[in-house]
Specification:
By secondary structure, the protein is an alpha+beta fold. The protein has one domain: 2-Layer Sandwich (Mago nashi protein). It has a six-stranded antiparallel sheet with strand order 4-3-2-1-5-6, sandwiched between helices. A hairpin with a 5-residue loop joins strand 1 and strand 2. Helix 4 runs antiparallel to helix 5. It is globular, with a radius of gyration of 16 Å.
């Protein structure tokens, strides 16, 4: 079902050996788990899955792996007082074909007020994020496009959703990743990415 040839390139053994588990067992098949995990490692991202075992933190992360453009990871950490901090990591190289990691990512963080954080959390609830399946059997990948991955950890719970290139407007099964991803990347993190690179 999956046409993954655009992404099938050798992974660094050093990356695979060094990383901690990013996802619960059987969240994805072995290829996708390795691909997503290597991207997160290259972006210097922590494991939210591991964090869910060790703390009561609340965080949300959008991982955007585009065939012809930089990998992106945007994470919102919610503080106890209702404020937050948003951090964006932009990879060097491209995330798909040819898959290249060219040095460390760039990073930028900034604080968020309660109103911004509340607006995002209300969207999470409105979209029923925590009950949406991790994958959709009807989701078809292709040669050119992007994986949109949303992760969250809250009060010891962890959840992840991944979809391939949600359209605008998105299919119902892809609405969650598109709306949360766009809000994290653009409204909260303030990334400047041309419309032609949003796919």
């Amino acid at each position: 079902m999956l046409l993954m040839s655009c992404l099938m390139i050798p992974f660094s053994a050093a990356l695979l050996d060094a990383q901690q588990p990013y996802f619960p067992p059987k969240s994805f098949d072995s290829f996708l788990s390795a691909y997503f995990s290597n991207a997160l490692t290259a972006l210097n991202e922590p494991s939210l899955f591991q964090e869910s075992k060790e703390s009561q933190a609340e965080s949300y992360r959008f991982v955007w792996l585009r065939t012809f453009h930089h990998a992106v990871a945007v994470q919102l950490d919610v503080r106890g007082d209702g404020t937050g901090e948003i951090t964006a990591h932009i990879g060097a190289g491209v995330a798909g074909f040819p898959h290249t990691w060219k040095g460390p990512p760039t990073s930028e963080s900034r604080p968020l007020g309660k109103e911004q954080v509340t607006k995002f959390l209300e969207l999470v609830d409105h979209l029923n994020f925590w009950s949406v399946p991790t994958e959709d059997d009807r989701d078809q990948t292709g040669m050119d496009g992007a994986f949109w991955v949303i992760e969250a950890v809250k009060a010891g719970q962890y959840h992840v959703i991944a979809r391939w290139s949600p359209s605008d407007p998105p299919e119902p099964s892809k609405r969650v990743v598109r709306e949360l991803g766009l809000m994290l990347a653009f409204e909260l993190a303030g990334l400047h990415i041309p419309n032609g690179e949003i796919y």
